[in-house]
Write a structure and sequence with these properties.
Layout lengths: L1 H8 E5 L5 E5 L10 E5 L6 H12 L5 E3 L5 H11 L3 E5 L1 H6 L1 E6 L5 E5 L3 H9 L1 H6 L2
Parallel strand pairs: 3-4, 3-5
Antiparallel strand pairs: 1-2, 5-6, 6-7
Length: about 130
């Protein structure tokens, strides 16, 4: 069953700008890593806030923290391993207490208050929701 899920999930997509990206589009409830916490840059207090977000999520979900390379490269790495959500902490996060949540499959982004982040991820990665939609 694992092989079937993995082979069905591996895709290579052509982007609008002509580049391609490798995506492991494992359904979010089955993905081993549920979210990645990514500070936009490694300075200006962003890593500290990102670490607080990571500390808030790590007991409920398998998460990764990454601050190496540009944000685009980090997104691509997370896409390739099947992480359904990337949480980006930027300079605006310091002001309004919100982070940007990027979905792997659609690449859509939305601003979410940090206080609502755990409930949002739980709703989207909960296996019960996957089974209800079958």
């Amino acid at each position: 069953m694992v092989l079937a899920v993995l082979s069905h999930s591996l895709k290579e997509e052509k982007l609008e700008n002509g580049e391609t990206r490798v995506v492991m589009s494992i359904p979010a409830p089955l993905a081993p890593v549920k979210a990645a916490v990514l500070p936009l840059v490694k300075k200006d207090g962003l890593p500290e806030l990102a670490q607080k977000v990571m500390d808030d999520l790590k007991y409920d979900f398998n998460c990764q923290y990454e601050e190496k390379d540009s944000i685009g490269k980090r997104y691509r790495r997370q896409d390739a391993i099947g992480t359904p959500f990337c949480i980006t902490v930027d300079h605006q996060s310091l002001e309004d207490g919100c982070v940007t949540v990027r979905e792997r499959d659609t690449m859509s982004q939305e601003r979410v208050p940090i206080s609502e982040l755990r409930a949002l991820i739980d709703k989207r990665v909960n296996l019960n929701n996957l089974l209800r939609n079958l």
